[in-house]
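Now for a sample.
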Amino acid sequence: MSREFSEAALVEERRVLSLKPVLAPYHHTYGPASGQVYDLWPAREPDAPLVILLHGGYWRYNRMHLTPFAAHLAESGFTTVLPEFRRSGGRDGGYPGTFDDVALALDTIPNGRPYVLAGHCSGGHLALWAAARGLLPRDSPWYTAELPTAVLGLAPVTDLAATIREDLSGGAALELLGGADAAEARLPLVDPLTLLRGRGGSTGVPTVVLHGAEDEEVPLEQFTDYAAAHPDAELVTLPGTGHYTLIEPGSAAARSVVGLLSRLSAEFGQPQPQPRPGAGRERGSLR
């Protein structure tokens, strides 16, 4: 179906997505394939809370649009990691390659450190899915009991079935899942809402879903239906906020994101983030 966006939403999208990319001071690999890489922005304090950030783009686009926000989180006191992964439309992207890469990145990069996993839009879908990997069948290659310490979904896609029905972003979910013939069988393995409804109703991971009341990209029902299926999750609504300002450095919405990340970090006993007072000397790699 065709969706209409307001002029305000289009202006917001253009403003945020046209921000100049920020190159990370460190680049590393988490696997042997050429695209299994991540960017690292160390915080000023070596024991700062760790945030792993999964980018959106409806599973099609690369991480560069999220680099300004990743750099902003580092300036706000978080050691921030931004992984890349295979994407729909690219070589071996979509099911299962996208999920293989996200699982491998999260099994590899933290190296035993507690971390908050955050993701925006389709990256929020991948973050919520990663937090639900403990609900997968034990024989799934993606099953693990080593889950994120907490997860923050930023305007996340939570319901792939609804995303297919409503044809969000021109068939993006069907493209991710390999087409209509494959989607039904794959949803129970990769859809956060389906996993919750079929496997117990809670991931066991502290979960916050943040969305803007003026979000025109992801329908409100995606957030409320997820909260209903995951009663342990916290749903936070920001009035007067659209889809993209959540990842716009310096915005009021971004300050809310920083506050939530600080709270989630504190809940598992990590030091509180110390905002960087200026451009300080960058420290070494995560490992």
